[in-house]
């Protein structure tokens, strides 16, 4: 019965994104149908290899303790729903679990309720969501940079191992990628003069959903606004709408964040999360394998959380650990790294490919500008610098960083395409991405 549910869900997922494509224009359908279909099959195959490798490796099909918790909580929740109805609170069903942002427990429980309790069901859902993310990324890129950059960035995101691996595991990151892109897309449309109320509705809905799935994603909101200024300068942006957007986001942000901060006994909230990080010994040394770098990095706790927890004490250690994590990206060295470090380290590879390209593109683009063009360029450069600082210091070297990768790819491809001498090397970068794909298959078959 569970196998039947899996097959039905896979077919429904394929049908769903094809129906969505029907309502797109002919050029979009032509660009996306093959990319989405091949990406769907590739991610399903990668998911199966990962699951079987983890299963036969004695890990019950789970890579971390987190994905196993999500599975167990979802199973318990859907069983309670079957017996007592849909009003059951996840906090009552999963006592003792680290229940922050319980929206994902509802997602897992609802999927098990519909398709059975097999741990592959949420992973298939992640893959389906990742395909819809491709369509949204393509649509967003067309609005800002045009069809050529949209096709290239979508193609790269479709097969990048960093994103595909996490889509094949039971984590929140794939859903957060989707919500970030969806919010970006609708925010871009209404700020650039498209129908206001429809797009502001989906923007607010996306932001609220992000809070429910992962509270830390509130930090994305600053990046979203900066990204809009990055695109083509502020001249095209309606400044009144920008102000209104800031007000709306501030109200939503304060209404969700402030109550838990005031009530530190509540398990759901930003303040208590910081304390629980200490209690659960989650502030760990990512570079502990090298004695000289001991305590130089704080795993997923970036500069903003460091300020809350340690009041900037020993802040100088943080950049050292970040640099070390960037120069040792490959999961096969050293080979005795645990699986979690292997997967997280693989996330570094796209950064090594695209950050130099972005920086080189920025420098050349800056030198070519005429003096009377300096204002849009200034916003462009400052926005990019803020985005890079945000990427490097907030979530590196955590798996949460994968949530920023689509934006990194989009901006990176845009800069690569602007440079005539670099443009011809785009397919070289694509070749590296496909090589990493084959390598990731090898890694997970050797677990």
TrEMBL record:
Keyword set, alphabetical order: Membrane, Transmembrane, Transmembrane helix
Stored Pfam families: PMT_2
Transmembrane segments: 6-23, 44-65, 120-141, 200-230, 242-262, 344-365, 377-396, 425-444
Name of this protein: Glycosyltransferase RgtA/B/C/D-like domain-containing protein
Organism per entry: Caldithrix abyssi
Record domain Glycosyltransferase RgtA/B/C/D-like: where: 105-255
Keyword Cell wall biogenesis/degradation: no
Record lineage: Bacteria, Pseudomonadati, Calditrichota, Calditrichia, Calditrichales
